[in-house]
Each structure stands twice: as C-alpha cells, then as structure tokens.
Amino acid sequence: MKTKVREYRLKHNLTQEKLAEMVGVRRETIIFLEQGKYNPSLKLAHNVARTLKTTIDEIFIFDGD
Amino acid sequence: MKTRRVLLAVSITALIVTIILISVRAYYVAIALVVGTLIIGYREFWSLIRRRKMPPIDERVRENTSKSIRNGFIFCIIALLFLILPFGVKIIENPNIVHVLAGLFISGGTVYLISYLFYDRVEPRLGERWLKILKTALLVAGISLGIFIKGLFSKSL
Known about the structure:
The complex is a heterodimer. By secondary structure, chain A is mainly α. Chain A has one domain: 434 Repressor (Amino-terminal Domain) (Orthogonal Bundle), CATH 1.10.260. Chain A is built from five helices and two strands. Chain A has helices at about 5-10, 15-25, 25-35, 40-50, 55-60; strands at about 1-5, 60. The relative contact order of chain B is 0.11. In chain B, α1 (about 5-25) runs antiparallel to α2 (about 25-40), α2 (about 25-40) packs parallel to α5 (about 95-120) and α4 runs antiparallel to α5. Chain B has helices at about 5-25, 25-40, 40-50, 60-90, 95-120, 130-155. Chain B contains six helices and no strands.
C-alpha cells in the first residue's frame, strides 16, 4: 500500500506528533502509516483523511489498483 | 490498559495480593508478581511518569496488546501443563510451588513484553523473508531455553 499521508501532512504544516494527537493515535502509528507498513481500519483511514481535509482514496493507494 | 481506572484497579489488586503473599512468606512469588505487573504496565507507568497522562490506545496498540496477551496465555497454559507433570511423575527434584509460581509470573510477563515489542516495533520494519527467519530463530531459541531450564531442575540421568 502506498500513501500520501506525509505529503498532505507537510502541506498542512503538521508534525507527526500533532497529527497523531489530532487523530487520537500514537506517533508510531502515523510513522508506519506514512511508510505504508500498516493497513489502517476504515475508521482510522477516514479520520486521517478528514483531518488532512481530503478523501481516503486520495491518500491511501492500494497496490491492486 | 485502557484508562487510569483500569491501571489503578490492576495496581491495587497486585498490591493487595503482594501483601498477602509477603504475609505468608512467599517472597519469591511476591517479587515476581510486582515485576510481572511492572512489565505488563510499563508503557502506562512510563507515560504517566514522563507526561503525566495515559498513552493513547489506538487500534494498532489494541491489536498488538491482544496478540501479546494471547501469546502470554498460550505460554502459561503450556508451561502449566509441563509444570503439572513434575508433581505427578517427578521429573523435577523436589518441586517447590513458590518457585514454580514465581517463575510462571516472571516468564508470562516476559513473553507478553517480548511479543508486544515484536508486534509493535520489529514486525512492521521487517520484510516477509526476514520475518520468517526471525520467527524460526525465536522458536528454536524458545525451545532451547525451555529444555535448558528443564535441564537445570531435572534429575540427572
């Protein structure tokens, strides 16, 4: 899975710590999300997308697509 | 541990059981219980000391915690089966219930901790091939350690 979480986070001038706080997860979870090493639940993906003012399919790109 | 209330409940229960264990002079078990509780709650205790607030419990942490608890539980069941044997067939010389319980608390906590660190830090960083190698190595190391420990307490043949 590829993600654009880092790109959108930087666009909004957010640190990993701040984004983690806004979404209600640990910083490590954001790190693994950005590296595409963690498959988030639909709820978490939705929360991240909403926080970054975008859509799920814009920031999470699945390899099968 | 989800909330401060749960952490407090676990800590108070552990404290009461520790006092009871000390009063019946089961010092090894009491120490093991304290160490085991510290091992299981180290993230929460550390966060409370450093930031004075509980760490956020997200889905990844919940997943890792439940997998680690499952591993600890499976370990305790297998260890108990092996520990019950000595009392019946005398594989171990003079089995001492205090030492056995102390060992169980410590090793159960250690299995939980290693499992958590593995799922939380190691697994996401490794590729599939290295993960397989590491899992095999851990399995071999675990079996070897088990046989070594059993050897320490067993009657010499």
